[in-house]
Specification:
- InterPro entries: AB_hydrolase_fold, Xaa-Pro-like_dom.
- This protein has about 220 residues and is of the alpha/beta class.
- The chain has one domain: Alpha/Beta hydrolase fold, catalytic domain (Rossmann fold).
- Helices cover about 30% and strands about 20% of the residues.
- The protein has five helices and eight strands, in the order βββαβαβαββαβα.
- It has an eight-stranded mixed beta sheet, with helices on both faces.
- The N and C termini lie far apart (about 55 Å).
- The mean pLDDT is about 95.
Amino acid sequence: MPEVIFNGPAGRLEGRYQPSKEKSAPIALILHPHPQFGGTMNNQIVYQLFYMFQKRGFTTLRFNFRGIGRSQGEFDHGAGELSDAASALDWVQSLHPDSKTCWVAGYSFGAWIGMQLLMRRPEIEGFMSIAPQPNTYDFSFLAPCPSSGLIINGDADKVAPEKDVNGLVEKLKTQKGILITHRTVPAANHFFNGQVETLMGECEDYLDRRLNGELVPEPAAKRIR
């Protein structure tokens, strides 16, 4: 997969990029965990997500947030990292003008950034939030959440306790016109130690079902005049 360097808001950003053979293929953007706790684009889960989308014909990009690897800049507590993600999506879209839709997948800190990007970019039609941390980060901006997606966590996660994730899911599930799918990996911690294969199996199953036209939200009920 080609190594790429592209311009971001705080300098150059380093990524790994795999274009699809189809000009109009959807784009997948993969976002890594917290930069100050060892998160990089080479995280095993991030790599596996990249490969999962690539195998299904997506044009796929993962990259290092500012200050990580060869990406320039310094950690910016989320605001700058959201700008990095928007720039990354802009960069891929500039190379693939025929691509009309995209997906965003984020793990931990990356899930929070991905959900914020979702609010800003109407072309994002699907998301995967892996081990999001509503106990640490504010997700109240999801009002309403504009796209259907998957939220998946481990039931032994002490970093993002299950009750907090369940609260986020229940809040999003009340919205009409989207379908939030929630999966829990039994006995998995925040890092899915020994459970990455199970995690990826759930993600693959969800993506395949979406691509097959399943998991369609019920239409909002029509008002009787």
